Amino acid sequence: MSLKELVGQTATLTIARTAPFGYFLTDGNEDVLLHINEVDKELVEGEQVEVFLYVDSHGRTTASTKIPEIAVDRYAWVKVTDTNPEIGVFLNIGLQKDVLLGADDLPAHRSVWPQVGDYLYITLRVNRNFLLYAKLASDQVIQSISQKATRKDFNKNVQGHVYRTAKVGSWICTIEGFKGFIHESQRDQEPRLGEKVEGRIIDIKEDGSVNVSLLARKEESLDQDATLIYEYLVSRNGAMPFSDKSMPEDIKERFGLSKGAFKRALGKLMKDGKIYQEDNWTYIKKS
């Protein structure tokens, strides 16, 4: 097997000779350069060293003593370092050169492409020219590393990164290792691939995977809606031409709330003694 066929993997090679710019390593048949920038300590001829092999920008097989967490058929979470709307996103795998996850492997809608700082669970693939590219983990791979949730995990808050996204919903892998699904009805907007999200477990499936909601709990949502309405009242000097008799479309356009949510928030504010209604207007109650 030639060293080029080991691109994207680790190999133990012997230092054949030194050079001003690094070391030449050998497997007994071929030599490969270990550049001085890819070494973290001084090496001597005859010493064996474990290296990661990749092809540089000139098409030459190159070695590094910096061993990435990932390799061909070995997966890890890696950070997005840059994006290019024409070709894809770049990921830091621990080498001087970032690896590309191509546009063809990303969602059709660029609005849910990963952004800098997001994390993706990937492995490496090698193309016909022996260049390294990122490859997203499949649903089966995520399943193989996932932990099974139990009934005691119901209603728990969880955090995780989106590993797959679609119009019908988003799939996440939580910090606990649970494989989770977020139905489109359980999110205000579609999260990005690789985005870190926080929600709560609303169902546990027979296979130990979970359904997750990113929507605020009812009491949290009620507080948020009430605050939104009260702040709008303050901005209008304590009076607004909206009440529980207002038309649903007017409420939706002004506050982004359903009429039911709007009425619940008004009810809370009235119960707390903060507002009152009169002639289809709502007013802040003066203390």
From TrEMBL:
A GO term for molecular function: nucleic acid binding
InterPro entries: CvfB_fam, CvfB_S1_2nd, CvfB_S1_3rd, CvfB_S1_st, CvfB_WH, NA-bd_OB-fold, S1_domain, WH-like_DNA-bd_sf
Pfam family, one: CvfB_1st
Ranges of residues in domain S1 motif: 155-217
Recorded family membership: Belongs to the CvfB family.
This protein's name: Nucleic acid-binding protein
The organism of origin for this protein: Neobacillus massiliamazoniensis
